[in-house]
Structures are given as structure tokens and as C-alpha cells.
Write a structure and sequence with these properties.
Structural class: alpha/beta
Number of helices: 10
Number of strands: 10
Strand content: 15-25%
Shape: globular
Mean pLDDT: 91
Largest sheet: 8 strands, parallel
Radius of gyration: 17 Å
Helix content: 40-55%
Length: 288
């Protein structure tokens, strides 16, 4: 039986992340082909300035990604990924003393960014790639395990589940936690991501968010990323650049359902939405 009380702090390298209240993670893609901001932060100075702005707006973590995992994206090699992310991680740590997360599934990248001062590994493949689990154990950093069905190149081609989606996600994540623990990656170093948009229809995504308390029962901090995603576009008929209001509504609902980290593109408005939601929830708890 799993403990359903997530940790209230997480040691991320030399940073200690307070998770007694929800935090915002700012997205910094250094890719030419990400669905929303591809190509905007390829230059090192552009990446530094954007990270600096997100930190000023209240981001607790900067999540650096060098491989697009949008639907239909093709994989890239670890050397190319490293060439994109390593200089960015190094400068964010050195110049901004930022808590840097790296969005990667590559064991080579995991090992290198740990040595450069990154504080968290964010893996959409939940350490299933060959060598990734061993690299994560050796790197000493906390890891976010995400649920997905399929790979980015094909994951949105008619996804289906034989059980309710929230049960499928919970079962997968519980199995990955067990695999991590068996390999020596301690439970207190793990976070979980439901994987909205990764092998899920709009209906799957909406049901999963509505029943996210099922994942809270796994007893680990939940990281949620729905910012600008196609589920907003399909429900509201909005293009990517007009999805912020829908994204803020989803962020508030995720906080109400137990999310402790919100991965977003628009940091300032998201921090306000998260903090306002938390203020209401905290007041309610105090008077229960």
C-alpha cells in the first residue's frame, strides 16, 4: 500500500525545492521544431534572456529541452541533443544560479547535464530507454517519470486504452516507480507526470484531469504540463497563440486536483493563476 502523502520538498542538486505549495516550471525549448516555440531560443543569449525573464516572473525551475517530443516529431541523436542543451544548462547555472531541469530520455545527456549542475531530469519515456535507468541512478538527481503511449512520431494515431485512462496511467507509473526502486533509484527522488497529450485523445485528457486524484494516491509529487496543447485548441477552437486563457483554467484545475509543479510557457500569468487557486484552497483547508 502506497503512502498518499507526497514529499513537501525535493533535493535537486544544490537546490532544495519547496513543494509545500505548487510551483511553476518555465519551458525553455532549444529546438528548431517544438510545436509552440520552436526556433525562438536557439541562440545562447536568447535562451539566457528568456530564462532570466521567466525567473523574474516567478518560475522556480527552468526546463530545458533539446529534442522535440511534439506529435509526429522524429528522434535525434544524443550528440546533437547535447550540443543544444549543454551550453544552455551551463550558462543558466553559472549566470543565474537557476534550478535547471533537463527534458531528456538520453542516458548520455543525463550524465553530462548532471555534471554541469542541472538539478532534475524530466523524462517523457520514464527511464525506459536502454541505459537511462542506470544513468539516472548514477547521476544522483531526482527524476520525473511521465506516462505515454507510443513514441512521439506515432503516439497520436488513434490512441486507445482497454481500461479507464486514469487506471492505465496509474498502473504504468506505479510499475515504473517499482522498477526505479528495484534499480536503486530511491522513491524520494521521483516525481510523476500523467503525460497529457502523449498518446491520448481529447476525451482521454479531459477524463484524466478530472480524475487526477487517482494519481495522487501514488503518493509522489505530480508534475503537469498542458500549456498551449492541442486539447485546448480542439475544445476551444483556438490556435496556439490564443490558448493562454484555456491553459490557465487547466492549471487551476490541476492545482485543485493535487499538482505540485505546473510546466508552462507563459510564466507570469500562470504564477498568478496558481497562487490564486492555492490561496482559495489553503483558506478552505484552514476552516475544514
Amino acid at each position: 500500500m502506497m503512502d498518499d502523502s507526497p514529499a513537501t520538498s525535493l533535493q535537486c542538486g544544490r537546490h532544495r525545492l519547496d513543494l509545500s505549495f505548487p510551483r511553476v516550471m518555465g519551458i525553455l525549448n532549444v529546438t528548431p521544431d517544438s510545436f509552440s516555440d520552436g526556433g525562438r531560443h536557439l541562440a545562447l543569449d536568447d535562451a539566457l534572456r528568456h530564462a532570466e525573464q521567466m525567473l523574474a516572473e516567478g518560475a522556480a525551475i527552468i526546463d530545458v529541452g533539446g529534442e522535440s517530443t511534439r506529435p509526429g516529431a522524429a528522434p535525434i541523436g544524443p550528440q546533437q541533443e547535447l550540443e543544444r542543451v549543454a551550453p544552455v544548462v551551463e550558462v543558466l547555472v553559472r549566470e543565474l544560479d537557476a534550478l535547471v531541469s533537463v527534458d531528456t530520455s538520453s542516458p548520455e545527456v543525463m550524465r553530462e547535464v548532471a555534471s554541469l549542475g542541472a538539478g532534475l531530469i524530466n523524462d517523457v519515456r520514464a527511464l525506459e530507454r536502454e541505459g537511462a535507468l542506470e544513468a539516472a541512478v548514477g547521476g544522483g538527481l531526482p527524476v520525473c517519470l511521465m506516462h505515454r503511449q507510443g513514441e512521439p512520431r506515432d503516439m497520436q494515431q488513434a490512441p486507445r486504452y482497454d481500461v479507464p485512462v486514469e487506471e492505465a496511467v496509474a498502473d504504468f507509473l506505479e510499475a515504473r516507480v517499482a522498477a526505479c526502486e528495484a534499480a536503486g533509484l530511491r522513491r524520494e527522488r521521483l516525481l510523476l507526470d500523467p503525460g497529457f497529450g502523449f498518446g491520448k485523445t481529447v476525451e482521454h485528457n479531459l477524463r484524466l484531469l478530472n480524475r487526477m486524484e487517482r494519481l495522487s494516491r501514488l503518493g509522489l509529487p505530480l508534475l503537469v504540463g498542458m500549456s498551449r496543447k492541442s486539447m485546448i485548441g480542439k475544445v476551444l477552437a483556438r490556435p496556439v497563440e490564443e490558448r493562454l486563457p484555456g491553459g490557465l483554467a487547466l492549471a487551476a484545475l490541476a492545482v485543485e486536483r493535487g499538482a505540485r509543479i505546473l510546466r508552462v510557457h507563459d510564466v507570469g500569468p500562470s504564477v498568478d493563476a496558481v497562487n490564486m487557486t492555492w490561496a482559495v484552497l489553503k483558506e478552505g483547508c484552514e476552516h475544514d
